[in-house]
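Hi V.,

You were right to ask for the full record rather than a summary. Here it is.
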Amino acid sequence: MLNGRRRMIGLRHGGTDGGADRFRQVHTTVRNALLLAALASGFGCGSPERGVAIPPADRIALPFTRDAAACLATAEGMSTHPAHPALILLCADLTDETALAHSMRQSALDRIVRASLSRESRAFAPVTLAANIRVNVDQLPLGSYFAVPEGGGDAGKLAIPGDGIPMVLSRPTTLIGPNQPPEGVVEPVAITVSVERSDDAVLVNLRAVEGTALRRGGWADAAGAAYLRLLGRAQLREEARDGFRTPDPNEFRQEGIYLIEPYDPGRIPILMIHGLRSSPQVWRVLTLSVLTDPDLHRRFQVWHAFYPTGLPPFYSAARVRRQLREVLATYDPQGRDLPSRRMAVIGHSMGGIVTRALVTNDAGLLWRTSFRIPPDALQVSPDDRAAFQSILTLTLEPQIGFAAFINTPHRGSRTAAGPIGRLGSALIRLPLSLTALFRTGGPFVAQMTDAMRPYLVDDFADSVRSLSPDHPLLVAMSGLAPAPGVRIASVIGVHGGQACLRNPSCVATDGVVPYDSAALGFGAEIVLDGGHDGHSDPAAIDFLRTELLNWAGLP
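Predicted structure:
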């Protein structure tokens, strides 16, 4: 290091082209040393750690110079001092070589972040690097911070305006707003720095770039790392099981629509609706694909619906419809934001039936399938009449312009009507608040159609029975095309793929839903060689990516 210092001092006075070459070499040496120090610290590969112990407060001499080489020479003399990275930040602003200055700042900022972040509490705290050099963290959002783990390729890298360290910030939902996951809000941020110098003191200010400002710089796996941390906290399996067996909306604590990131008025929501005996965790692969794809994430935000799946899909569709309107009214009461004008919905299996209910105008068909008389003549209380109408009226939610169906039984599934389906149906205990609607007896029963009476009175249709190919409402909706202007895409699984479709002796099914039930006959379609898990198939993800971008008007 002493030899390197002599070279920098010689450069300061040389002023020749050869001196400029030596200057670049020295900068490269310093940069490499800093990068090696950062790598050796393990910060980029694991959890941040507090830096070296800070000696008793002492004032250090600051490099009062505008010459980069002289500044670095002074900084090198303090290479073992905790204030060394702060001095490097001062020197980085003096060089004209942008790439070199970026490397220097990144390495110095890395060390300062590690020194300021508590390994135990995961919170930032102000640090005094020397009596006249202090790190200020007052401008950082409250919460817990975690390093983005390094992976293959671009994993962990985050393009941001300027320089910064990608991290994951976890905050309680109470600090953000409604419709956020109960586990809290976990999002990517970039820790950036600004340096204030006055007299012989230096103040290093740490800030967080988040939200729209961060997205403009591009993405890699920082958003994905945030989502994975959220998934690690989520405990949805037991809730999903209870939502199938005892699907009482009053006791289903997590029912609703959740924003995976803070609400963005300038990006299109993709509302993902899971299927039977499932939860939003089924969307892990697709959600990660949206979050980590710069083209997708620049234009789309992910919303998840969570609902008790033992309920009939038409009942669930009415509740999802209401919840969707409530989310938009909460975040955009004036209806001016992009989510109020453009939205995509993707449903898997029974979630596809719920999705179809959101993009279809039935012109009263479902009501006429269920009752012999118009709504205003139905002999029930006003509240019950309103409940019936919400369940049995399909209208396009006007902001939805894209709908994708994955392994969806549009025409039902024989599995639901067979022994397995009957067993699953026997496990479901529907809430009295729902079944009581259809069991008022007397004149009310006489107002039902003959086709629907067995499903509503004799043996109320739970979600499994509702997916029978003979269910009147499913049959009625399967004959309706989605509303004009909605772009449609279908992902269909067939064991044997396209070859099976060409073979008359092959049973074209994904094991649960037959091809003839999943195929709409219109819109874009992809047939996969696989089972009922098209929501995580790489070919399906690529297909949906293309369809979404084309719909959004992108190349």
